[in-house]
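User: Show me a protein chain along with its predicted structure.
Assistant: Here is one chain, sequence first, then structure tokens.
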Amino acid sequence: MSNYKKRSDGRYYTTIPTNELDANGKKIRVPVYGYTIKEFEANKDEVKAKLRLGVYTNDRHTLFSDYKNQWYTTYVQNTSLSHNRKTAYGNLIKNHTKKLDGLELGMIKKSHVQESYNDLNGHAALQHEFKITVNQIFKCAIDDNMISKNPAANITIAKAKRDKVKNRALTKVERDAIKKADFTLMEKCFVLMLQYAGPRRGEILALTKSDIDFEKGLININKAIEFIGERPNLKNTKTFKGERKIDILKPLKSTLREYAMSTDTVILFPNSDGTIMSKTQYRRFFEQVRIKVNTAAGGNHKIVKATSCSKVKRKLIFPIDMCKDFSAKAFRHEYATILYYSGVDLLEAIRLFGHEDSRTLTDIYAELREEESNSKDKLNEYLDKRYG
């Protein structure tokens, strides 16, 4: 049996030389894989037999443009990835790989990939997406025995400085304003649900009355919506990472019960037709929440009309803004803060918050722990006792 390596993904791997030469005059080697020794040896024997008979097909001459479209169809379009993720991949391979499109897979060099990456300078997020996407494409081409190495594997990555928008919890001003804001019952229940249960936007809009179990005191998060343009697309959570049961906390319980009894719709927070809100309907609904919180905090607002491209658009502005950067994410951060200061341990908090955002929650816990740390005082106290 020939030498082989075991990859990090568990597969056995080796390469077999062919009689073809690459652009640098080196022999092209065919990669061979197998999840077991038996499978690996069988795949290796098959490649060797085809090479001896001269019938091995090396598709290294396939154009990158053809292969990327095949990759998109197989690994993106026909999968359970979200609409937004599919769109991001589609836009990138359509608009930002043009310098590679006319090249044969086997002729693409690291310099070609680097040049395409460099063309996106000043757009750090796009560069990051480009690197991830082309790496996936070339890795699939290797697994398909079309090329022997990944020309995107070691390109030079730009060290771009990006200003990170820091997420925040509600401010004391906002918390106080929420208590006295002139909400409708639906708005009040929606706000308290965000504050004391922490669902994501897609999760709270997908909630039905049957998801609320007053007997057990639980909110069942088992589905979500994603917006495809304006249209909400309902989907079940794919894994345990999204599905969870959240306790109905006391500040929410009475309002939630009153609101649930007052509405006869299936959707808990519907539009005027009783169905799931569209993207614009949700935006305007949340605008009203923001206006009322800001007003209760002592701020004010006005709506101005602006003409653009022969269209008259309304724009909401806040001359006195007491709730800057107020968003649904602030409520989610608030819920994480409540979990922390309530003494909920990190693993249980991750379950309640949702496993998909475990990194976010860990960062919040670390930040809060640092803020409340009094290690300096503890050290001084110890030193006084020990050496004072």
